[in-house]
Amino acid sequence: MLRILRAFAWMRWRVLVNSLERTGARDTLQRLSLAIEQLGPLIAAALFIPTAVTMAALSGYAGHALAASAGGTPLAFKLIRFLLLAAVGLSVAGPIMLPATERTNAVRLLLLPISRATLYVAQSAAGLADPWILLAIPIVLAFPVGVAAGGAFGTAAIAVGAGALFLIALVGLSSLATTLLFLLLRDRRRGELLALAFAILLPMVGLFMGLMDDGKGRPRERTAPADPVVPAWARQIGTTAFKLVPSELYRYALVESINPQPPTALQPLLALAALGAALHALGFVAFSRVLGSPASTGSRRTARGISRSRIRLPGLSPGASGVALNQWRLAFRTARGRSILVTPLLVFGMFALLMWRTGDAELGFIELQSGLALATCSAATCVLALMPFAMNQFAIDGAGLTLQLLSPLRDVDILIGKAVGNGVIAGFAVVLCVMLAVLLFPEGHPGLWLSIPLALTSAYLLAVPAAAAVSAVFPRAVDLNSIGNRSNAHGLAGILGLLAFVGGAMPAALTVVVATRLLGRPALAPAALLVLCGLSLLTCRLLLIPVARLFGRRRENLALVV
């Protein structure tokens, strides 16, 4: 087994090294893109060393303070307790927040003469690379050293065993959570719904609760909060369950070992060992279920269920219309695409609740009533939510991009189709948010209401060439049905896209300021913005010519990326 585990470790090391090495299959721009994308993990690795040293020093001091406290609980030890408790919580929530670790791809290894138990050990050992476990390792290693420096050698020996058992339980908890998440998301449609819920609904629920409990806004009667009526048996179950948390068992073992009767520390040690064995037993059962089932399930689309769409958008060539419609369908069929449509509506609901509680608002240097401020902020959110699509508009098609590149489509038709498709996605949410704002808060000049979609249109048209160029230069292969960072665009592409949108919005904002502030005639703002939209469309069309040439030179590289 040790030889196989060493082979797995070497294989993971080679995968990491190969991801950092230069490859001749990509051009200079793509190598630059990959290098910039690797800066984040490299910076995190550079910051890990001083953090681990700090954790080890704090843990050693806590061990020395515990040995010298003669049964007390020093502050440093309490801090170590909460750090380890956070590591336990992240072991459960980490696979949801950071699902980049692919520890469930062992199905391909079933053809090798390796037992399932060995595969499980190899997959579980990969959990030691999780950041929350990596930071827990120096804590449990340095604590016995500090205790031994304080003269409590018996406690130091117990701390060594308790630390090993705690790490084993932590790895088992992380492995079990990862495997259960994979089994839960194995169904494609169920995975998409869960991805949408975790990415959007949970943060919005927290924001909603914060808005409801902030104590501001309209006056309302307040009564003294009643004491919660919790049954005694429920409190007892909660207290007992909390004592079985691995970090709490680890703490009990250390605290009891300081007492004059060290054998009392054996009870939490035995409980910690039993808990670790139970977690790994459940993890092995779940892992065996993964190995014995297909990688993904869900309904498949057959040729009979696919109808050929003959819809053609007016004003576009057949090729550009097809690309635009494909972009629209991609937004409705993927979890990340649906989040682009749903996020602005949820943000609108949160802002509407906030406006209802606080009354009128001011937006920057322009005094706006609640409806106009709500519509402006929500419309801007609609465009910003489009960034993962607009700033990676070619690579998100995956294998479909190869079909587009092989089809008889002009480069400019692909760019125009992508721009129209993204505009329709954002425009649908913009129109809906503005209409709802008008219904809820109708106050305000009609000219300013008409200025909101026109200003967003002008800003979007000016940002279209930059979005296409950035998507061609910094493509990133993504999974639009995943949870987390795997569906985002390249980091530098996102920053450049945000700057392009802000720069494109400057002329529209200046036009509104001149019409409302300097001239004092808000009715002129829509007419001026309509002219600005025409100029922006002309500018966009002219800038797409060199961008199409850039896209033509990057066709082969884009095909390699996807």
Residue fraction in strands: under 5%
User: Topology as H/E string?
Assistant: HHHHHHHHHHHHHHHHHHHH
- Approximate shape: elongated
Main beta sheet, described?
none
Number of strands: 0
Structure report:
This protein has 562 residues and is mainly alpha-helical. The protein is 73% helix and 0% strand. The longest helix has 41 residues, at 28-68. The radius of gyration is 29 Å and the shape is elongated. Mean pLDDT is 77; it is low at 99-104, 214-229, 301-308 and 360-368.
Topology of helices and strands:
Layout (H helix, E strand, L loop, with lengths): L1 H19 L7 H41 L6 H23 L18 H10 L5 H19 L3 H32 L3 H25 L19 H12 L2 H13 L7 H26 L26 H16 L1 H24 L11 H16 L1 H4 L8 H8 L4 H30 L5 H28 L17 H28 L5 H30 L1 H7 L1
Give me some keywords for this one:
mainly alpha, 562 residues, 73% helix
Short description:
This protein is an all-alpha fold and 562 residues long.
